[in-house]
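Q: Hi! First time doing this. I have a protein sequence and I read that you can turn it into a structure. Is that right? Here it is:
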Amino acid sequence: MNKETVLLMGARSDIALALAHRFAKGGNDIQLAARNSNGLIEDKLDIELRYGVNVTLHEFDVLDTTVNELFINSLPMIPDVAVCVIGHMGEQKESERDVQIAALVMRSNYEGPAAILAALANRFEERGSGTLVGISSVAGERGRATNYVYGSAKAGLTAFLSGLRNRLSKKSVHVITVLPGFVYTKMTENMELPVKLTAQPSEVANSVFRAVQKKRNIVYVKPIWQLIMIIIRNIPETIFKRTNI
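A: Yes, that's right. Below is the predicted 3D structure, encoded as structure tokens:
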């Protein structure tokens, strides 16, 4: 890809920082957006020194949707590629007991990401170019008792990205849905994850980088997840409701 500017929202996450390194390695300038963005100064300096690109830091809270336009206007330039890496898994049992905790999970994984991607989509459409990337989850492909609050929010994001892709396909704006499956991150560090089904943040970053280059639509970071989810989606409901997966 030619030199572009890449905006990473949720830039404090392991996946976002891996993406920053991968896109910077490709010669692209980076915009890191997150809450408490000053805490990313060392990462900014490291990426600039390592790859010889420009890196800027931007304060951004995905839950405050009222300032999305101000946030976009504050960027030194409208990015060529925007990636939303924001997510909050929460604890299913806590979400079942407390509607406010459930609402935070839903807003963090659907409402907030969808709102900022929608605002950026309008700018990209006006310009007639750009790529939007949303990090969703295979958890959104069918509701399961163990994580249906998180999964329902990711299902909403996946549907939103699909509609956005359909809307913008004739406007030279590309939309990519990324479905990572399990990833070794701070968010999953207390979980026992199956090794063969779990990706490193660098694997996610490489998959996203290739997807942007090749204008892919839907990306399963580990291809086996596509087969797994086909099977899970097609289990009859009378059987599925008795499972514990």
